[in-house]
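ok so i was messing around last nite and threw this chain in just to see what happens. nothing serious, just curious
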Amino acid sequence: MNTHPIPTVKLLIGGQFVESTTTEWRNIVNPATQQVLARVPMATRAEVDAAVAAGKLAFKTWRHTPIGVRARIF
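result:
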C-alpha cells in the first residue's frame, strides 16, 4: 500500500505555476498498474479566462518568432 500523498498538478498561466481553486479534480492513472500518479485540476472559468488572456498577450510577440527558434523551444 502506498502511503505517500498523491501530488497535484498546478496550472501554468502567464508563465507562472498557480494553484487552482477548483473543487473538481481528475486522477492521472498508470494504465499498467492502475496506480494514481497525480491529480490534475479541472480549471475554473476564471482560470481558463486568465489563461486565454495570457495566451493572447504572449502571441503578440510569439507570432514574430521565427519557426526555427520556435522548434528549438519545443
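not much to say yet. The helical segments are 45-62, 67-73.
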